[in-house]
Task: structure prediction
Amino acid sequence: MTRTFKVLAALLNYPTPEIVAAADDFIPVMKAEDLLGKRELAGLEKLSQQLADRDLYDLQERYVQLFDRSRSLSLHLFEHVHGESRDRGQAMVDLKALYESHGLEPAANELPDFLPLFLEFLSTQPLAEARALLGEAAHVIDALTERLRKRDSIYAGVFRALGQLADRDAALADAEVETPANEDESLEAIDKAWEEEQVVFGPDPNAGCPVASDMLNQMALPPDSNASKGDRP
Result:
């Protein structure tokens, strides 16, 4: 089990009291596995410190403004690959089947391509396989890194870390990322979009989403000495 992926999943989840309470433990966990460089760890430490120190409602508002109100920053991977095409539906089915074949049951209200859920799944896989799977989404990770960097967002550090972890040999050479043309982020446009599609602000803590709760439980376990070698738990 690779706990670095679990921590990154938590950092990209909607801030909850449980995540905030565990924030001080995030960096020690990642340093122990030694998968990230100093620059990447420094960026993650800043975000972890903010989660630990700032008002919860301010953290939640920032998260919603950033990830829920802009399709160009959506944390649903296939949004950037398939958009609203029919191909997205089949991709969802295939990804859900992959999870289930490895014993991970996504919550009923969560889409399989939600990035924190994907990272939760990667944490259960041998490291080499996890990095290869992440490499297949490297084009999306890189696009989101750049978009967040342009906004001077502290969350760009999470995506830089993911970019380092991704196996670039597995990257899809001809993959393209959809870029919403002149995305309207005005309140009027957001209200109209919400009328057409129900929006959920982060995972429902009562729906049994495994990402945050399982990550927090596993953080209490002693470090897996074989994690860096990619062995199965």
